[in-house]
Amino acid sequence: MRAIVTGATGFIGIALCKELLEQLYEVTAVIRPGTKKREKLERSLSENRFAQNHLRILELPLDQLTDLSEKYHIEADVFFHLAWNGSSGSDREIFEVQYKNLQYTANAIQAAKACGCTKIIGAGSQAEYGVVHGIAREEKTVPRPFMMYGAAKLAAYHMGKVLAEQIGITFVWPRIYSVYGVGENQGTLVNYVIDTLKKGEVPQLTSCENMWNFMYITDCVRALRILGEAPHAEGIYHVASKDTRILKDFVKEIRDVIAPTGQLQFGAKACDLSRTFWMEPECDRLYDLSFECRVDFANGIQSIGVSEI
């Protein structure tokens, strides 16, 4: 199998390249020109002998994805479009930043078709739903995003689906929930709690009374690979585990793994309930493809705890 991966230097992108190479894919990794993260990608894949001859890294702007076929003559079977500008921080609310991603999504779909791919896998988000109290059901729950990022992801799904139908390529839209693991970006809740407890300090938290769902990074990218390989996979899939609980329970489990005698300060920080995600995903379509998570939350936290944060 041959795959193209955009956003290959990101947390999920690096792990996906590693997963694909371990499954003997030929991988073309598309990265931002001049990015310092190239070294991180190369270092992460350096121990994979197959990568030496079957990984190609191309520095290419997202508005030049047609060069994959026209200039570099890349051919592939499946295209994973993970690249997305403004996926964190204040950029999530900037219209101009998010709007450009719609064109980049269209570029990716057209490039995938030109490279001979039969399927393109996008990277949706649970943020498309906004705040849903109760189960978010695949292709049934009405999305009501409250931030520009979620609205742009939702628009990319609808427009991408129509464009893919027009040019004749299968379009898969995994809505990815809360992924954690070794290599995760700094500033996440999991890393904050682990790092604070390791320092012997007390994490300052909200009430953490909302439902949540965590999925370990290796399970996430295996799910993406399966979506790429499954002949009839198409449309929306929730990429999440079956372990949905009150967020407070997850935080306590982190404490129990990292520092059993450590303290936690719930309610120390205020939260806006109108902008607080409630993660309770239906995942039937993914698990019907014979997918199962292999890393439970405690083992995932243990893996992070013994690594450098």
Describe the structure.
It is a single chain. With 309 residues, this protein is of the alpha/beta class. The chain has one domain (2-181, 213-242, 280-295): NAD(P)-binding Rossmann-like Domain (Rossmann fold, 3-Layer(aba) Sandwich), CATH 3.40.50.720. Helix content is 37%, strand content 16%. The chain contains eleven helices and eleven strands. The strands form two sheets. Strands 1, 2, 3, 4, 5, 6, 7 and 10 form an eight-stranded parallel sheet that branches. A three-stranded mixed sheet has the order 8-9-11. Helix 1 packs across helix 8 (217-229), helix 5 (95-114) runs parallel beside helix 6 (148-167) and helix 7 packs parallel to helix 9. The protein is globular. The model has no long low-confidence stretch (mean pLDDT 96).
Instruction: Using the 3D structure, state the CATH architecture.
Output: 3-Layer(aba) Sandwich
Overall tally of structural domains: 1
Radius of gyration: 19 Å
Distance between the termini: 34 Å
Number of strands: 11
Structural class: alpha/beta
Short key terms for the protein model shown above:
globular, 11 helices, 309 residues, Rossmann fold, alpha/beta
Concise account of the structure shown:
This protein has 309 residues and is α/β, with parallel strands linked by helices. It is built from eleven helices and eleven strands. The strands form two sheets. Strands 1, 2, 3, 4, 5, 6, 7 and 10 form an eight-stranded parallel β-sheet that branches.
